[in-house]
Amino acid sequence: MNGADDSDKLRAENDALRAELDETNQGVLALYAELDNQAEQLRQASELKSRFLSYMSHEFRTPLGSILSMTRLLDDELDGPLTTEQHKQLAFVSTAARDLSDMVDDLLDLAKIEAGRITISPAWFELMDLFSALRGMFRPIVDTTEADLIFEAPEGMPRLYTDDKKLAQILRNFISNALKFTPRGEVRVTAQMEGADRVRFAVSDTGIGIPEELQNVLFEDFAQIDSPLQKRLRGTGLGLSLCRQFAHLLGGEVGLESAAGVGSVFHVVLPLKLAEDTADAAE
């Protein structure tokens, strides 16, 4: 009898264990289904956000272009002379429209990157040509500030094979930020070889600097510095995040060194020649 009782007891325990395993398996399957559902919802939400950013960015561009065109026409005094005060007001409108246009471009680039639709177009080019174009681009801004913008001539530097427009956008963001946060002093742009096959571009300034505790988050989306200057010079907080993502697409990396009250150095290190498989993967 004891043997039969033990057998019945063991069978009952096995049945209970099997029922518990079945219940656990059902719970795991339900969990997997819920995770799949949540993943699909996240994918749809991300796709919707990217589509929204792309759509709104395109829609904003047309009226912004009209505003900029009209301010140029008025500033040229084609319809009659303007007073000094009116020229100042037009300059304010034009600057605000350009800032908004830059924000729209940042949002559109973010949408393209998140949707995997960014295009990399590498080509051979001279650094001197890149620096000359950037110098001309910033001349109107520098004329209205007390900071000097200095481009060190990249003498002896070889030609680069990468996407010069993406590189220019990275440096343009670095320079623009440096000028914003350098009320007086200088902003210096340099390029030098790092090893045998990489180039280090650096934008250094003598501005307000960045506290150490904020440096790790600056290259994240929508990150901004909490300072009186930042409150006066609002942006999307996307510029440095896009710099980081563009650098990765070009096979490089970004970084910074800074001390509060002393200044900052933002840099991007890129391969001298973009690998063909890197460009193919980006596209």
TrEMBL record:
GO terms for molecular function: phosphorelay sensor kinase activity. InterPro entries: HATPase_C_sf, HATPase_dom, His_kinase_dom, HisK_dim/P_dom, HisK_dim/P_sf, Sensor_HK_Regulatory, Sig_transdc_His_kin-like_C. Pfam families: HATPase_c (PF02518), HisKA (PF00512). It comes from Luteibacter rhizovicinus DSM 16549. Its EC number is 2.7.13.3. This is histidine kinase. It catalyses: ATP + protein L-histidine = ADP + protein N-phospho-L-histidine. PROSITE patterns: HIS_KIN (PS50109). Keywords: Kinase, Phosphoprotein, Transferase, Two-component regulatory system. SMART domains: HATPase_c, HisKA. CDD domains: HATPase_EvgS-ArcB-TorS-like (cd16922), HisKA (cd00082). The keyword NAD does not apply. Coiled coil: none annotated.
